[in-house]
Amino acid sequence: MGFDEWEGTVWIWREAWPMLGRPLFTTWPVAESPPSAPVTDAEPMVPTLVATYDRALRHWHQTPPPVLKSGEMRLGKPAQRSAAKALGVPEATVGIIANTALSLGLLLANVVAESGRGRKRTVEEKWLTDPEMHAAWSAASPMARWLRIVAEWVNPTRPAGSERLVANRHLLLWELASLPAGEGWTDDDAVAAWMEHRYARWPSTRRSPNASPTCACSVW
Fold first, then answer.
1. Domain at 49-140: CATH code
2. Distance CA 110, CA 125 (A)
3. Which of 54, 146, 189, 194 has its CA 20 to 30 A from that of 176?
4. What is the three-class DSSP state of 93?
């Protein structure tokens, strides 16, 4: 049900109408709040992603990934799979690292080979690590690097981002900041389910009353 604050009317979703004849509705999905626990470390912990980031940059320095023919600022699936296997991390993690590294300028498109002339001219480009940017990145503290990664992850002007995805990332950071001081979540899956339920797009059209909620887009 909903309330129209301008006209003072009460309305009911068409999908919810069949529920009104029931004395009790027990199958409505509810996501429990994700568990949290106090962080025992005296100093702020730096996520392992920072170390993985540096390993990824070293990997791409040794084996530069090709630039897509479309010119998009992202890695192709083969290069992403190859890096994930070499680093021993999920492809999604490699995708986050690659997308932010490209937008930060840590990897730049360089022509490594060309042949032919005129219409027959072909150019091969690869993403190479930029020496000056990489030196500046390495000189920064691990915490400073982590904060820069997060800032780029939620940057709405980043080429690889989308409005909904960035909005959901901001919501995630908002919820993290709302935790009691010195506490952190302990279950990633529970957080994902809770965020999906908390910020689901209600209601979608032609939705079954017993269906689970669906988030507008992926939080991660």
1. 1.10.10
2. 5
3. 54
4. helix
Residue of higher predicted confidence among 218 and 99 = 99
Q: How far apart are CA 176 and CA 191, in angstroms?
A: 10
Rounded to whole angstroms, the Cα distance separating 176 from 10 reads: 34
Furthest-apart CA atoms within the chain: distance in Å: 78
Structural domain spans, the chain: 49-140
Q: pTM for the full model?
A: 0.69
One DSSP character per residue, 144-204 reads: HHHHHHHHHHT-TT-TT--HHHHHHHHHHHHHHHTSPTTEEE--HHHHHHHHHHHTB-SPP
Q: Are 49 and 93 spatial neighbours (Cβ–Cβ below 8 Å)? A: yes
Mean pLDDT of 176-186: 87
For the stretch 196-214, pLDDT in tens is 888 876 544 334 444 443 3
Question: What is the per-residue pLDDT for 71?
Answer: 83
